[in-house]
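Weekly puzzle thread! Below is a chain. First person to post its structure in token form gets bragging rights.
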Amino acid sequence: MKASPRQQRLLLDLQELDTTAARLRRKREQIPQRAELASLQGELSAAKERFMGLQRELDGQQAEIDRLESDTQMVRDRKARDEQLIAASTSPKEAQALQNELDTLARRTGELEERELELMEVAEQTKARFDEAAAALSGVDGRRAALEAAIGEAEAAIAREAAAAAEERTGVAAEIQRDLLGLYEETRSRNGIGAARLRGNVSEGSNMALAPAELMTIRETAPDEIVFCPGSGAILVRVDEA
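Winning reply:
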């Protein structure tokens, strides 16, 4: 295939833009905060698990306190009723039975109130641990949000740079003859690099010096003939260093 030296030099511009695009893709994947965010997931999961566990524990204790309060109120209501009945009773036997029940209700009230106080103390301790867990979770979640925001900002900056490079590539590609562009794309898809500069006796495609015989063959080839790097397989663009 033949192509003017200018056309061949345009391939170097195109390759530079493709290299930039590949660099930006790697840069996007390797944003430092991504690794920090990944390492934070274990801490975040542990903080959530502790928070939710203490929340369930506190909810269970509060439900038990509510049940005890309800039972205590029922006993108090029963006690008030019996006190009214004993006040209106004219039968000593009935009065004695009501008094016995009042004594039982009094003991029951004391037991319920004592149990409720004990549970309230436990719930207070659980609440303190729950508040600590909530603060810890909030801190970790705040760090997560900051990392995600930083990643978003970095991605947006990279996207702008990539869009500019892609637009410039479109312009450069439009200047290259179709068959040469097709050869470049095919070579790049096969070898990972489409075009490389011959600098002195070194191919930038392989970063290796060409053998004297290879270099002589390439130097003797007409400037408008396409030649390839023996090491990388890329289109080798001869540039006048002067």
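Puzzle host: Confirmed. Bonus trivia for everyone else. Residues 5-22+177-238 form one domain.
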